[in-house]
Every structure is written in structure tokens, then in C-alpha cells.
Amino acid sequence: xxxxxxxxxxxxxxxxxxxxxxxxSDDYFLAEVELAELDDLxxxxxxxxxxVAGRLPAAS
Length: 60
Fold this sequence. Notes:
By secondary structure, this protein is mainly alpha-helical. Helix content is 70%, strand content 0%. The relative contact order is 0.19.
């Protein structure tokens, strides 16, 4: 796995965790921010051929 792939996957994992924490604390604004960041990271990964679905556990 190259550095870009490892980095983007780690950023996605971190953002998913941050999103869950925001949702659990009922911080709707932060949840929207994290969701937008997650969408951007997934789009970036797809544009560079990184299969996010096959490498990350399913989001809960």
C-alpha cells in the first residue's frame, strides 16, 4: 500500500470516528461538517482509484 492510500484511509477512519462522536453528543453542526469532510475524502479516494469499500470496515 502506498503512502497516499494509507493516508487517505486513515483520514477516512478518523473522520468516521469524529462523525460518530458528534452524532452521539447531538452536535448537529459538527456532524454536518464531519459528514462533508467524509464525502470529500471518499470522492478524493475514488478519483485516485482507492477502493474505500473494500479496505474499511462498514460505517455504523
